[in-house]
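Suppose you are handed a protein chain with no further information: no name, no annotation, nothing but its sequence. What can you learn? This example shows the usual starting point.
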Amino acid sequence: MATANSPSTSNPSHRADLIPPISSFPLTTPVGLTPNPTTMNRRHFLLSTSAAAGALALAGCSSTGPRRDILVGPRTATTTSAGPAVYEMRVYTIAPGKATDLHNRFRNHTLGLFKRHGVESVGYWTPLDTADQRLFFLLRYPSREARETRWNAFANDPDWKAAYKASEANGSLVTKAENPFLIRTDYSPVHRVGNISKGGVWELRTYTTPPGRLPNLDARFRDHTISLFAKHGMTNWLYFHKMADQPEADVTLMYFLAHASRDAAKASFGSFGNDPAWKTAREASEANAGGSLTAPGGVKSVFLAATDYSPTR
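A reasonable first move is to predict its three-dimensional structure. Written in structure tokens, the prediction is:
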């Protein structure tokens, strides 16, 4: 079966890309009572204000109204009662000489078909190092179950099949596809799209911890690192864990930063590394864990630029 801008993978669920539009949850707004104490006696005023408070309480407990999720904020179309939104990070290795064709397929076909089927396009990036011919893109779904349903709808869309066939007439556009499923950490900033980098660059960082030390790394980021990054001019965007069924889920942290430039990133990390507060936090966290919180070679970074069709820039 043709896949969404990717070759076949070993898991059939990885084929193609899309989902029926995510419907918005209605915001339940109780009708507020606005008694005028100058025209009502005290007893009527107390009764009416009690009724208003009761209406608000009922609205907050309603099973159909918006709920708050610690990862996503107030419930919207991006979450369900089953849990937080699910993200999919797809990384395509582009076949030699096929970058223009692949970007045209996304720009002219894939993004529109994703929207038709409810797959939310969060962002699309390519490495600043032009020798690195990969496309990174992040998708979001209300749940893992929704992902499977909507992806299959996309994969079977006649318009997708036609676009895929036409674009691959002279050979495959992608030689390798990876797609870990992710959820936001409890300390991740709120999901935002738009011009986050303000014309700057992106950095995707992936940390691998020794066994059992991911909670220690999370605690250090939660209590120290994120605020220190901001102090030294870095923009924290989204922080992720892999979902529990993904390879190395218990030892992996992935996150995005935005910088004014690559040189600015170097300067920011330099000042961050020399900050006494960072040195103290690092020393204490490693003493508490019994050693380094990252495995040898366990810090990987790639600098990225948003594509012209990316919703997040």
